[in-house]
Amino acid sequence: MGELYADIIVDISHEKLDKPFQYRIPDRFRGKLETGMCVTVPFGAGNKLIKGYVINIGETCKFDPDRMKEIRGINRGDADVEDRMISLAGWLRRNYGSTMIQALKTVLPAKRSVKKLEHKVVQRILGREEILSLLGESIRKKQVAKERLLRELTVQETIPYEWVTGKLGVSAQTVRSLEKAGAVRIISTQSLRNPVKLENAEEERKTLSVGQMRIVEEVMTDYDAGNPATYLLHGITGSGKTEVYMKIIEEMVDRGKQAIVLIPEIALTYQTLLRFFRRFKGKVSVMNSTLSPGEKYDQCERAKNGEIDVIIGPRSALFTPFPHIGVIVVDEEHEGSYKSESAPKYQAREPAMEVARLHGASVVLGSATPSLEAYYRARTGEYKLFTLRERLTGGQLPKVHIVDLRQELREGNRSIFSRKLQELLAERLNRGEQSILFLNRRGYAGFVSCRACGYVVKCPHCDVSLSEHKSMRAGSLLVCHYCGYSEAAPNVCPQCGSRYISGFRAGTQQIEEKLKGLFPGIRVLRMDADTTRTKDSYEQILSSFSSGEADVLIGTQMIVKGHDFPRVTLAGVLAADLSLNAGDYRAGERTFQLLTQAVGRAGRGTLPGEAVIQTYQPEHYAIVRAAGQDYEGFYEEEILYREMLGYPPVAHMLAVQLFAGDEEKGGLLAGRLAKTVRRELGGEKESRGNGGAEVRGRPPELRIIGPVPASIGRINDIFRFVFYVKCADYGKLVQVKDLLEEEMQNMAPVSETVQFDFDPVNTW
Ligand code: ADP
Ligand code: ZN
Ligand code: ZN
């Protein structure tokens, strides 16, 4: 039996992670030691016993075996904050695939050598008269620096230290000499940075409605009985979800627990934060991408010390090291930004449940349009479902018109604005009301459709639309993102013979120009990736629209959430289909979410609203259900499609993504890995031609699709390949990942790298 060795990190601060130390595993610990465990090891010249964490176990000895030290003990004390973070990192690594280092870096705050923000002031202890006499003395002695400081001290009792050494140009030595003379003292207040600088405005307390109260009571009853659960709170915007979260958090804080509130970065608006600050005052803090690493670190320290009870932030806030978490709220649970784009590629919902498990905490997910995953689990009883149906602020749901763009073309209107939309826009202009025009470009993948009949070219095997790939020899080629199927782009529509078949190309700028042509003098604001480059531009555009500086706001998906605009009475969606044809299995779900939100933008105030949805597929269920604001109806149809094709959440899907410097080697390795899966785990290839029929129902076994070059086959001269493994059982996909990790490790070192993406949100 060969020796076993463990890589151990002895100081879990972010920047030291890359330097693990290797220790021998004594026989008595064989089979007992696992990655993530806390151990005692001798360290340094004096062999002082310190705490360390196992991040890897292997058979290769990387140092001189004679000088290798042994692990002394395994610590199994009750989990402290750090142990929990390590255990969480281990969980992330197991379930999503990444190195232990990557996983640790995800959960631990960067402990850069940022100095605590030390605030020092120089304060005079002598009276003003005495300072004046010292001043006279220093003038006589021509001590100019001292003179400057004393002069300042005659008018101010305290001066910030940086100001003294900076602006006044007084050396530390001079200050010290005055300190020695008993003229001043230096006061240092070490304060952890608090990024929250809001006035302490009093809030006006709302009495919860019966429906809201029932939710709070059930969550707290479960919690107090020792049965914390996961709850899905389904309710349209304005139905009072945030009030429910705040009440639950308040109850938890009363019980001495802490709360994490996750919200998508884009929804981290002043308005939202203000509500939490008013309720929880100094006990709440924010984590967001604009914080410096130092500030983030400080937030974690404040959380550990019990200075704060509530943290609000995007997905990374989940890893705030609170000692006793009572509840984790995930607002807008369906948002794509909860999914991490780099390894470990987790979706915040699952780790939230794991953090909750480690703390015995409750999880509350909230959304107006829950993800299929969450709703599916609520239906199967894994989550408890609550529904809030009424809008508490008044305001009616808008009247929705679906416009068939094929009909428009047939009747001679080639404009991107349907006649209905033009008519309603004109009305708004006359009445001095505002409109929002929404260009749905999300997931725009260069699909090809017919403007005359709406026909979209789809993959015969995967039921997703094909994407146009230009720059290939003659003409363009249509390719499937999943299986690599391809065919030549047609010149005429295969369904109706029309020549108007092509990719859809229209940007927000083009829409602005056309709108100005149609309505001279119209005041337009535009919000898209171009106009929101700078940090504050997003808020600026929203607030100038809010204060009535424009008649129309044109934008991409960015404008559908966040702010309320009481004077907006018309929401127009220019081409609802764009996201329907995004070429991945979530296209319908995304479209439904975006349209529901876009439609919901109109009529928030007292004025009634209308919405126009322009589309080539007016009978598509995602469009019909969004127009009717009918989530349940949408869910029923969408889940059927997922069941039929074995897509998540009914089954699971693992994308194995491969990066290679050499195209040929990359392709070969991808093929080899796919073959390994098939050989070892009995996966079947979902081959062309039999895809449809055989995949129906829950595939009990593994299905392998691909490998194919990724839809963006090369970035920065790195070639990308992908294959998908589908299975009803998530655990089996974890096995696939483990197997491939092992295979990569056993191979002679290669330059290619592999990443795993479970239940991918974006196609590759
Ligand atoms: P959501 O989070 O679902 O969008 P909010 O909690 O923000 O809903 O509530 C929407 C609006 O209704 C807010 O202005 C809020 O202050 C108000 N509101 C919520 N609950 C109540 C209540 N019980 N009584 C009166 N107003 C309420
Ligand atoms: Zn056609
Ligand atoms: Zn396909």
3D structure, described in words:
With 764 residues, the chain is of the alpha/beta class. 33% of the residues lie in helices and 22% in strands. The strands form 7 sheets. Strands 11-12-10-13-14-9-15 form a 7-stranded parallel β-sheet, sandwiched between helices. Helix 10 links the parallel strand 11 (284-286) and strand 12. Helix 1 (81-96) crosses helix 2 (100-107), helix 1 packs antiparallel against helix 11 and helix 17 (587-599) packs parallel to helix 18 (621-627). The radius of gyration is 31 Å and the shape is globular. The two termini are 43 Å apart. Residues 687-699 have low confidence and may be disordered. Bound molecules: adenosine-5'-diphosphate and zinc ion (2 copies). One zinc ion binds at residues 450, 452-453, 455, 493, 495-496, 498.
Helix and strand layout, with pairings?
Layout: E1 5-9, E2 21-24, E3 38-43, E4 48-58, E5 73-75, H1 81-96, H2 100-107, E6 118-124, H3 128-140, H4 144-155, E7 158-160, H5 161-165, H6 172-180, E8 184-190, H7 210-224, E9 230-235, H8 241-254, E10 258-262, H9 270-280, E11 284-286, H10 293-305, E12 310-313, E13 325-330, H11 349-359, E14 362-367, H12 372-379, E15 384-388, E16 399-404, H13 405-410, H14 419-431, E17 434-438, E18 448-450, E19 467-469, E20 477-479, E21 486-488, E22 501-503, H15 508-518, E23 524-527, H16 537-546, E24 552-555, E25 568-573, H17 587-599, E26 610-615, H18 621-627, H19 631-645, E27 652-660, H20 663-681, E28 684-685, H21 691-695, E29 703-715, E30 718-727, H22 730-746, E31 753-758
Parallel strand pairs: 9-14, 9-15, 10-12, 10-13, 11-12, 13-14, 16-26, 17-24, 17-25, 23-24, 25-26, 28-29
Antiparallel strand pairs: 1-2, 1-4, 3-4, 3-5, 6-7, 6-8, 18-22, 19-20, 20-21, 27-30, 27-31, 29-30
Helix pairs in contact: 1-2, 1-11, 3-4, 7-8, 17-18, 18-19, 20-22
